[in-house]
Amino acid sequence: MNELTGWLLDLYPVPEEGLALWLLGEDGQRHRLLQSFPVSFYTAGPAPRLRCLWRFLQRQSIEVRLERVERRELGAAEPLTALEVRVIQPAEQPRLFTRLWRAFPDLSFYDADLPITLRHAARYGTFPLARCRLQVDDRQRVRSIQVLDSPWDLDPDPPPLRILSLEPDTDPFHAAPSHLLIRCREGSYRLPLQPVRPLLVNLRAILERHDPDLLLTAWGDTWLLPHLLEQSEALRISLPLNRDPTCQAIHKPEHTYFSYGQIIYRGQQVHLFGRWHVDIHNALLFHDYGLEGILELGRVTALPIQTVARVSPGSGISAMQMLTALRQGVLVPWHKQQAERPKTALELLRSDQGGLVYQPLIGVHTEVGEVDFISMYPSIMARFNVSPETVGCERPTAELVAELAAIADRQRLGLIPQTLSPLLEKRIALKARLSSLPAWHPRRSAYKARSSAHKWLLVTCFGYLGYKNARFGRIEAHEAVTAYGREALLRAKEAAEDLGFEVLHLYVDGLWVKKAGASRVSDFQPLLDEIARRTGLPIALDGIYRWVAFLPSRLPRLPRLPRLRGLRGLWGLRGLRGLDGRTPVANRYFGVFQDGSLKVRGIEARRRDTPLFIAEAQMEALELLAHASTAEALAALLPEALRLLRARLAWLRAGKVPLEKLVVAQKLSRKLGEYRSPSPAAIAAAQLAQVGKHIRPGQRVRLLYTRGAPGVTAWDLPHPPTPTAIDIPRYVELFIRAARTVLEPFGVDEPTLRLWLKAPLRRADGARLPYPVAQLQLPLKQAQRRSNPPISRVNRVVDE
């Protein structure tokens, strides 16, 4: 018997051998181990049908053990009598289950489609990169596993992970790559893609020499790895992408689905065995939290790294809930079976409400504190024990807001709070460490990435309470959370007003407040303490703004049709245009904190369909204004911001902007044949289809606006348009819209802005602009005198 200590890299079922486990040994070796691991699933239904299923299973060639057992369903008063099907070889369980549900669709199945890593985690406490001590016999079979750390450790021992990066020298969808760029800790390589045979031979040698644990690729799922495997098979040159020679790489097809009002596309995937493969362009939120965040998601969800990198955070929180259920012996239904309680129309109106939104005061405000509840909705679930099995349904949730203690059963801790509590505690601890570390500290980036990964899990856990396909979802629990949230925000508002603060804005889980003389963190601490006392929820000061600008709505320009011009008064269109500057938008603002950092929401620079040149120009202007520490200094910097915008607009009009910075990315919302009036994205997608490049619904199409019909040209065509074909006036309109967003809070309306952008520039040595800049200072004084608009409630799931 041998003892091995190291980090668990991968585990997966192998035919006739149980599980294969890969360990990154402390001795520097990579060990492939085997483990016996029978798996069970359950079925329930009428006794005659279960007897038929029993006989059906006895005729199968797959070895199983059958037993009648009693198991617990979530929220059920009595145990459920079910038939346990214990499959000896885990690799055969999915195939057997598929046969069963096709033959017996009328039966209920439980624990039937769980990832093998969740089953292993429930039994042994393992997770990706868990540090383990294993007892192994002479045949490399695992006899015992002891996990030495926890997914909730803040600073786990770093594993000796070997990473090899593979990237073509250009986007394959845009143009044919010519070289493959390879990077690792020891050095880098640049291999030509043609001829293919030397490429495969050299790549094989590199893989064997470095033996990476992770292949980090660019376009590896959608082009690179399928291309390499295809060429390897055609030339019969073995390419050890898999570390396990007994397995073949898994190819998962692309697919498109509808979720939360959006069409979402997932590209094809290539999964490896014995080592990981992560495609940075197919990993869902790699741009947000990077590899560090992906590894953290694997630790807390127990999903395989190759899976958790590509699935939504909702799949991650669902896996955590299933893991909690497995550890407690609660059955996990294959399909959700609990329907919403019938409600009258009045009950529905009173209970089915979203978060509380307070219309902001349009304009510029100085010395404003932003106070946020820390992961408000998850904190509500944990603090008030909101879970599908604990929320009562005798009365509508809205009637119980005044009796918060009566909404949920406090006697038994629910499955959802048990799942979320350790995650919340870890995120709060990480944020506390972040606040105490200096900006130069090397651990800041890792803590920030891991905290961001937690944020996405916590954001989606609320939506999954009401999601129709969630295993443990229930709409009454979803409604209870929003009821608690509205009450908590109202109590926070009352606390602020009782302490002399003016509330400028409320938005679901946060509020913006100001008070004469309050400009330091200590000035807001009494407010934080009072809100925490009144609500029982964790609260934090997100920051203090030097100044923040809340923006009005931006209505679309009216159609320029002759028959509409005479009907403007009849249809009220003139009044509609007049309301443009007076209607606030809850989540459209920008501001600068006291440390000089900017926060922007809902403006062009945050939109993915804004050309890069326009987004950069808008951010340049805001970064210039961010240097202002007072209202007077801000007004003094506005002429400089205007000069900058005029200079960037001059570049655009002169055709000096590179074409790649004018590219617009728009999502294709349906198949090309389903468009009655093709959008720019549909026109560009049709152009690509003519050259053999097909865009699926949910994918983004990159295009340029061009003169003449059809008005757009796809960026990824073999021959992009010439600079002279670009529709400069259209880009000028987009630029002016972005410039207006920056300057409108300071009193610059669109006609004035257009005049100023057309006027000739004077020298920047103090010479006066052709239009009086003094007008810009007026709204800074006027904004404070506007009356508070009424509170409104909207149904919206918010990124916390």
Describe the structure.
The chain has 800 residues and is of the alpha+beta class. Among the domains are: 2-147, 2-Layer Sandwich (DNA Polymerase, Chain A, domain 1), CATH 3.30.342; 163-312, Ribonuclease H-like superfamily/Ribonuclease H (Nucleotidyltransferase, domain 5); 356-602, B family DNA polymerase, palm domain (Palm domain of DNA polymerase, Alpha-Beta Complex). Helix content is 36%, strand content 22%. The protein is built from 23 helices and 29 strands. Strands 25-24-23-20-22-21-19-29 form an eight-stranded antiparallel β-sheet. A five-stranded antiparallel β-sheet has the order 3-2-1-8-9. Helix 6 crosses helix 12, helix 8 (313-328) crosses helix 12 (444-466) and helix 19 (631-653) packs antiparallel against helix 21. The model is unreliable at 395-406, 556-580 and 768-800 (pLDDT under 50).
Task: List the defining traits of the structure above.
Nucleotidyltransferase, domain 5; Palm domain of DNA polymerase; disordered C terminus; 36% helix; five-stranded antiparallel sheet; alpha+beta; 800 residues; DNA Polymerase, Chain A, domain 1; eight-stranded antiparallel sheet
